Amino acid sequence: MIERLMRPYFHIPFVLLVGACSSYGSSTPRDCSQGLSYDGPSILENAELRFPTGRFGSTGTIPAATVQRLDLAFENALEMLPTETVDAAVLRLDGSRYLRTAGDPSTARDLHYWASAGKLFTALGILVLEEEGRLSLNDPISNYLSGIPDGELITLEMLLNHTSGLFSANEDAQVRASNKLMTLEDEIAVLQRHGNLFCPGTNWRYSNSGYALLAEVIEQVSGQSYHSFVDGQVIAKTQAERLRVMAAGERPENVVALSQANGDVREVINHFGGAGSVIGDAESMAAFVAGVFEGSVVSETTLNRMTQQLYPMFHSASDPSQPTRYNGLGTMVYVAISQSPPSYLMGHSGGLDGASSFVGWSARHQAVVVVALTGAGSADLIASRLAPALE
């Protein structure tokens, strides 16, 4: 067992998506044992999700009529949202692309922070290491870190799909009130103080802390910093040119500041670790997502595993029994229940006070759609308007 507890780690001063997610489990179990099975809300297994039918091209052109529909969809969405800046991209399988921005980011600050969409990158880092035979998703986190509640029962797979039962440290009142850079020891102390919310593997609850621990696993197994490994072994396998993971504690000078609800403008400082540390422009993010789902980063077999078992996150307001978003291994699946049969998008969302993001692949439209924004509003909403405009 390797212990690395005293170096500066990360601090999550805002909620990264978790606030609106389904929240299952509320008591601290006293007696968890191996062999317990999942008994939460019904999962979606073996959904008919389709990946790109080949590699993305580079020479396609979006028809003028489609561009007009995309423009109208983008502008109508913005009328509903009090955003400050928006960066959006659509990349179709034939290589044709649609790029739109809004607001007035300076030429010196033209990149956006992608919040919890960065969890997709962390998950891919773990899966790359698994494909190389350097770890197993069945490994308990106790193989890498000591002091994690029920760590001998929590597998890396449970951390990836949020079934570990771990508390999410950013929800701790003391953590949220603090501006200090936490150490890994601090993080583990918060997890110990709150205890697990349910026995590992028996339920689902979004945990930023789980992804913080996964970043530490990447560092231990690879021998590199988290950001160096993901930049070199995940992002570099795609055509993304202006996309990277921030170093721990970094304050990048070329990223649009967060415009918060109280009117404050806050610089992006990387306190987020494996829970979401990616910055870039929408065009590069679209190229990255295209590379992921065409199989440039991990194999199609691994991509299928990422969505083989899907846990419900959000439900329809009109039909609370109907899930509209699921969570797999570092990826989210969005269900358009208004369509028959329902269509699916695969990707990840992110959100915190002052920023929102969405990245996804739509098999129905054979296209990648990505959106990052600052200010108030939902990147998901803009993406949900852009995708149908491709029809």
Automatic annotation (TrEMBL):
GO terms for molecular function: hydrolase activity. The keyword rRNA-binding does not apply. Coiled coil: none annotated. Residues 94-378 form the Beta-lactamase-related domain. SUPFAM superfamilies: beta-lactamase/transpeptidase-like. It comes from the Bacteria. This is Serine hydrolase.
